[in-house]
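Quick check before the chapter quiz. The format below is the same one you will see on the exam, so make sure you can read both the input and the output lines.
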Amino acid sequence: MTAQTDSNSVVVDITTTLGDIKVLLYGDTPKHRDNFVKLVKEGFYDGVLFHRVINEFMVQTGDPESKNAAPGKMLGSGDPGYTLEGEFVYPKHFHKRGALAAARTGDEANPERRSSGSQFYIVTGKAYNEAQLDQMEKQMQMMRQQEIFNKLASERRDTIMALRRNRDQAGLQKLQEELIAITETKAAENPAKLTPEQRQAYSTVGGTPHLDGAYTVFGEVLEGMDVVDKIQKVQTGAADRPVEDVKIVKMSIEK
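Here is the expected output.
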């Protein structure tokens, strides 16, 4: 697949203890691009570990607390002291194999889906057949409907609470039917579907489709996926941390 380059994109060379990886930072996710470039120039990533590695899923790094971390130390909560506003250029950028994306805390603690200031992951994933992709589409549609319904219900919270206080079951039932009808109309106007590009990628090279639209994808691997594959295959212990450290030696911006 061709890389999505433009005049605002940046190429970064990553030297690891298992080999070299070259990544492209997309020009249309400028907050993430600029932040990554700033951290690279500061040497922030030099010496950090790939602290979370899951075969057929992804490899994660960027925790400053992982530098010289003792064996068995729990990692993954370190950052530069700030988060970034999400930049969801979806479905143009999605979780195909080789995608570079920002890690973040979960929706409960982070409903705005803000990105970690430094932690990122590279997708390895796996390939899916057409029936599996069809099933994913159905799940996407159900999730979309649930999101729409929850938003509508949240906007009418005062009305719902008043109906409950008055034990007005008929009123609650009527309102629920109205919200369901609105939900179905809104969901039909903008159906949750995989694009032809997503289907092509996920059925051939693979990826992690269930993360789409929820995490900021801001780049991709240009060269060195064999190195990423080596990293994803290493033996891991508690919390998916590699038993033998895999380290970023240095990063540099390609001129």
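If your answer matched, good. The first helix runs from residue 30 to 42.
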